[in-house]
Amino acid sequence: VLGAVACYLVATESSVRAAVGGVLALAASTALGAVVLDLSPSGVLPVGSVLAPLFAGLFGAPILVESLRGDGGVPPQGDPVISIPRVGVGVTAGAGALTGALVAYVPGVSAGVAATLALPAAPGAYRARGFVIASSGANTATAVFALFALTGLGTPRTGVTVALADANVPLVLPVLLPVVAFAAALGTLLVVSVGDRYLRVAGRADASRLSLAVLVGLAGLSYLFAGLAGVGIYLVATPIGLVPARVGARRVHLMGVLLGPLALGL
After folding, report:
1. Mean pLDDT over residues 72-87, rounded?
2. Cα–Cα distance between 144 and 165 in angstroms, integer?
């Protein structure tokens, strides 16, 4: 199943160059995961692990590195009218929720992969916007069903559930599910009420300085979670994370850091 998911991600790339880049990103992240996932470095925090520096380097730092030039920033925002037809929104969000629920039970497959799997349901003219909708549905569904997977199978499937398991949080669904629902509702209200104000403030910030500060902050978090080894993992993961964007491929191939070792039984 995991091998089929990896092949699908590569096969659905937009060009041969992107597909080759996807294979390279998948292979490099798989190799990185095979080397570091079994490490148990001691960090300052009692619930530390290598996952924090891994994902910070693969997914967080590359975007910040690309922003250091300061020529990007927040793009001009249009009016708040949703341009996708309501039927398209419903179908795309539903497809994202369905795939997000399914991947919550599959090891090594993230909500980003689920959104990619759901993307064919988006109207052809709105694929970029459709991915945002599918990702939202997939992330929300994964947050819910990962809790069911954790309580039913006893195995964490997402980074959040790994942290819950490591922190020995009582797995009481009647308590945890309302927390997820509250967070989803609060997030919705915050986006609507303060989203535009936040974008205006962020747009006035110096992109280069802000990106550099966050890069240093991520290095600090890597140290807190996994000590000096975590900082090293963060520094190694960052150039691997830069590969997809440089070749026009999707970043989701970097989930090979989990998907690859699991599929290969490493």
Report:
1. 72
2. 15
